[in-house]
Design brief:
The chain contains 5 helices and no strands. By secondary structure, it is mainly α. It starts with a helix and ends in a 6-residue tail after the last helix.
Length: 142
């Protein structure tokens, strides 16, 4: 039986991947000038980022940072480091140009950090998968 917090992590993984993939496709298209390259990079990231994001969620699940805003900021920073490295490598591989990989990776640092922080704030307000977990953790603040 899959517990509710696993379902929550999977749901967060899917929703974040939709947002992140659309951002990557758009940035890659703008930087390369080629929509097909943008779609290839975004498509490749669907697999790598979903696995990496799920693992990131599992690692952060029981961390004891009590202030929700600090927690979301730290999660944003650690995820962005992992995500940017993945994007740089995939973009380099798909475009064949390391400079293109760096441009795409660093362009998304700003957009993805903002989008990720907002995604975390939205999910913080959603109870899906937290019914039992919130009962045992009364320290969560808005």
């Amino acid at each position: 039986m899959v517990t509710s917090h696993y379902k929550r992590h999977l749901a967060k993984t899917v929703t974040w991947r939709i947002v992140g993939t659309l951002d990557t496709i758009l940035l890659s298209w703008i930087i390369t000038g080629n929509p097909v390259t943008g779609l290839k990079i975004g498509g490749a990231e669907i697999i790598t980022k979903m696995v990496l994001y799920y693992l990131h969620e599992r690692i952060w699940f029981n961390r004891g940072i009590r202030d929700s805003r600090k927690r979301h900021l730290f999660k944003t920073l650690t995820w962005r480091a992992v995500g940017t490295l993945d994007t740089v490598l995939l973009s380099w591989f798909i475009s064949g140009n390391p400079l293109t990989g760096l441009k795409i990776g660093f362009a998304e640092v700003v957009t993805k950090m903002i989008l990720y922080y907002l995604h975390e704030r939205v999910w913080y307000r959603i109870n899906f998968g937290l019914e039992q977990h919130r009962e045992s953790r009364s320290w969560r603040k808005t």
